[in-house]
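I'll show an entry:

:::
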Amino acid sequence: MKNLKDKVAAVFAASGDIARAVAESLAEHGAKVYVTARNFEVVSQLAREITDNGGWAEAAKVDALKETEIDNFLSKVVADNGRLDVIFNGIGASYSEMGGRPPTTEATFEQFMTPMEKICGSQFLTSRAAARYMVQTGSEGTILLLTAALSRSKLPNVAGITAASAAVEGLTRAMAAEWGVSGIKVICICAGALMETKRISGWIDATAEQYGVPREQLVAQYKAFDILNTSPTLKQVGETAAFLASETGVAFNSHVVDVDCGKLNIL
């Protein structure tokens, strides 16, 4: 179903697994998709694959933490198309950037603030830049953010990313309240722990090494609270994003949409 036909979408941090899946689904549903990342080679390959599969995609090198680069990129997108309908930012912080999982009493202020600045800061920059162009062009578009279920979990030694995840959700609600008058909806996707992604796989490997715990035991802990005997996939996350950006998805606004098949330990 081409429910995003003639829509113009921009995906930031598309070198990551989740943003890649979102870009692919948006294109499959008919959107014209611009994929960006600091690694131009990776997103260029992604754009070629989308095109080879019958979609439309163009790659650009954009650092989603640099406001000037974001604005220059979106300005070109709008100049070329006269509109901007959808954005998604899949930025995340690596395990090493957070200094592993140090206890809060030992974590440095820099380690605590890294995910706050990178994750929440980037969502702030890309969202408000997109909103400005959506308002200018009357696009009445959809701004999709990404958070982690840590915001509603109780796990030790992850104070920084937990705080950042909660901040992104609060930011979603505030921006939805501001921009709704212009017909812009703002939604946050919470993808849960996707075993397919390099980030979660790397997190598990690093934690197993740091604490001397078998990897299988950590995977079992991730799955222990699953309500169903299944886990979400990257494809499902991408399809959820495409649905939320469609006309039918207008029923969702200011919400945090969990894509986790249900978890007993998530509020």
Remarks:
- The chain has a mean pLDDT of 93.
- The chain is about 45% helix and 15% strand.
- The chain has one domain: 8-258.
